[in-house]
Amino acid sequence: AVNEKTEIVWVHYYDYDVYLKDRNINDSVSKNTGVFIDEYLPFHSDYAYSGLRVPATPDEYYPKIIRFFDYLEGEFGLKIIIAAHPRSRYEDYPDFFGGRPVLRGRTSELVKKSEFIIMHTSTAINYAVLYEKPVIIITTDKYNKGLTEDPTPEWLAGFFGKKVHNLDYPYEFDLSKELCVDNNAYHAYRNAYIKKDGTEDLLSWQ
Predict the structure, then answer these.
(1) Please, are residues 193 and 125 in contact by the beta-carbon 8 Å criterion?
(2) What are the CA-CA distances from residue 189 to residues 5, 150, 163, 167, 170 (Å)?
(3) Per-block average pLDDT, block size 10, for the chain (206 residues)?
């Protein structure tokens, strides 16, 4: 039973274990390179297992993603790399990202080496927080309608002082603002959701 003698042990989120293994690797940051945190949205198995309708088909979703990446690369001279979802099987499908590199199983490494992150609501935001990388938050109308739980893009944007970019509407984009990091917000998120202040830098099983 839980009582006054019960000891509370704060154990960090698993992503911090990965961060502990990767943080001291001497990787240089790739200037003007952003990483898109893919959610494998039209194919994600969670929808099949839960009986929920997929928020968007590949034809509805990926062209909007490509158009936004084309805009960023053309307007600002950036390069976008795809950090594929761990359960994705993009090798079984045609190219969904306009010829951009698609890499699976290397999210922590890619975030560490990038200048900024593009994402919807993935828990891989933990890596952006740990490596103190700016986050660009995107959505679509159908993505919003398909959400069944928090966090929403709007919640994340509010927490980090960001703007949500809905790809169904004309882009209003200020790169200098997007590349800013609110250090207080990042510390608050890390302390609340990843690793509590004052706990040891040990692997969680230790």
Answers:
(1) no
(2) 29, 15, 17, 26, 30
(3) 87 93 86 94 62 75 96 97 93 93 95 96 95 96 78 93 96 94 97 94 87
